[in-house]
Amino acid sequence: MNLPYFDAAAVRSAAPWMTAIAALEHALLDGVDPEEDSPRLFSPAPGGEFLLMPSSGRRYSGVKALTVAPGNPARGLEKIQGVYILFDSDTLAPLATMDGNELTAIRTPAITLLAVKDILASAPGRTTAAGQVLVFGTGIQALNHLRAAHAVLPEAGLACVGRRTDRVAALIGQLASEGIEVRAGSDADVPEAEVVICATSSSTPLFDGALVAPGAVVAAVGQHGLDAREVDFQLVLRSDVVVEGRASAMREAGDLIPARSKEDWESIRPANLRDLVKGEFSRSPDKPCLYAGVGMAWEDLVTAAVVYEGGNRS
Fold it and tell me: Could you say which of 182, 250, 265, 291 has the lowest number of CB atoms within 10 Å?
């Protein structure tokens, strides 16, 4: 069997931002329930671990198989590497493989900006317009979140915050070459930002949660795991909260879990993405809104289907 392989360039070409976002939104409206998604699976590997993310749907099913090698960056290699395998749900025959890293690099900003635009629109008297978008981070996720924010919120001003000025400058230069204007920012910009996106691997809060303005949207999406701390407890406690899925958040959202007891979270029952896109979430006018994302397998499957179908039409 000669399976088609979609490399990183082919994945990018087949899933532009608005196409990927529309597909994710359609999936949620068409019956995908984040609460039924398969949990992330971990298994030991030499020098690291395997990370498996399976998901099934009516037409397609698939699994993202990744390796996590903490020692790789010191050797000039990627810490996370992997592939996605797409299957036909009826026969379970494999249909295609594709670059797993690039798939992640696309679906994560796509789902974040889907959440951000719908949270903005859920405020009374508001549209999806945003004034200032502030992104923390300088890696591929920060880069792609800025690209996606430019596509979804074209009138917004964009700023990037990073610990290393050389990496901030490189990111700004890369985006300038694509016609996207981004300025260097700092945590002093947080009070004026309408959207703050955290796309880092930080284990400590990036800014003082008291700085976030009422009505602002904060998306903490840089990593999963109980040691993740992109935002502080103060922000969690003063915000409306939206999650990708309640079950996945309670397993892996280190930004949220320690801020309240399990019983409190069960009582609050924060809105998930399906609730959000169906219009079943309403915001408090005097609070920020925090969106916490850990990355889910159904998002990979939806995006992989877009890549496969788009690639087959080209």
Answer: 250
Cβ-based neighbour number of residue 163 at 10 Å: 12
Q: Is 114 helix (H, G, I), strand (E, B) or coil?
A: helix
The first and second tokens of residue 290, run together, are 């925090």
> What digits encode the pLDDT tens for the residues 220-247?
999 888 888 999 999 999 999 999 999 9
Mean pLDDT over the full length of the chain: 94
Residue 40's contacts (CB-CB under 8 Å, 6 or more residues apart) are 51, 52, 53, 224, 251, 252, 295, 297
Sequence-ordered alpha helix ranges (H) in the chain: 8-14, 17-29, 100-122, 140-152, 165-176, 233-238, 246-252, 262-268, 273-277, 297-313
* Token pair belonging to 165: 């000025």
Q: In the chain, what are the domains?
A: 5-103+298-313 (3.30.1780.10), 108-296 (3.40.50.720)
What would the pLDDT profile of 130-142 be if each residue is shown by its tens digit? Answer: 689 999 999 999 9
